[in-house]
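Data deposition worksheet. Section B asks for the primary sequence of the deposited chain exactly as it was used as input, without tags or linkers unless they were present during the calculation. Section C holds the resulting structure in token form. Section D is free text for depositor observations; keep each observation to a single sentence. Incomplete worksheets are returned to the depositor.
Section A, Depositor: J.P.
Section B:
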Amino acid sequence: MFNGILIAKGDDGYQARFQRIEESLLPPGDVLVRVSHSTINYKDALAITGKGPVVRKFPMVPGIDLVGQVEHSSHAAFKEGDWVLLNGWGVGEVHWGGLAQLARLNGDWLIPLPAGFSPLQAMSIGTAGYTAMLCVLALERHGVQPGDGEIVVTGAAGGVGSVAIAILSKLGYSVVAVTGRTDEADYLLDLGAQEVLHRAQFAEPGKPLGKERWAAAVDVVGSHTLANLCATTRYGGVVTACGLAAGMDFPSTVAPFILRGVTLAGVDSVMRPKADRIEAWSRLATDLDLQKLGAICHEVPLIDVIPLATELLNGRVKGRIVVDVNR
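Section C:
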């Protein structure tokens, strides 16, 4: 038996509970991991609350992130005692995830815990920070350099936004943070933002083209915000899109793309090939100031996860939530 969050759907409706779970119920996999830490991401909050169609198989243990130690492995790449890390691959959606003390997984989804990271630090970064790094890599591959101009980051007080600001500022970029929580301005400035703007000026329908300002953008919001970012990005600029906090719609025109040569680069973290994952985590080890993780994350026990999911969806969570599944 082990502790976990289990989501069920039946005659009683959709329910997520903290409970004891039989080990025999774990789904198939060639690596059994004793989980140390997990996280609560936006997708996890949707799964736990049932506010979005994230879970596609029931019952389900949510948690798209985990770090832990291998207890048993028939996979050639891992042996008992190895520390491993997982982000995405559909765990917490179609395969039991990390918000439990045990996980049985496909070894192809795992990478070794990168040298220099403790389990707590790895989950302080988690999928949100790994996604932020993928966005930065996308900007670099499209030729965006620190001297090109301002980089705007939306959802700045959330997990992706917080880590993106910390990385970009360390790399020498001029970062503008966009948030609905302007009371967190000091937090965002401490992470490295040079200016903080309220999200309201991006959230309403805008013109097909606006005044050029941004050299590039990291967007987790979507909808009108993404459209307005594209419309105000400078000639030849790059906008990375990795989230849909305001919706899946994209009410834009082709004007930014055919008149200003703006590039819209989609960033997926779930099915990313292993080589890309290893590159992103390697860069996180050098390009993220780990001293800032203390400001970005806070740690909670597993039993606190369910109420915190609602808080996250309501925009009342700053930075990252790390879950110690063993307390």
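Section D:
The chain is about 30% helix and 30% strand.
The mean pLDDT is 96.
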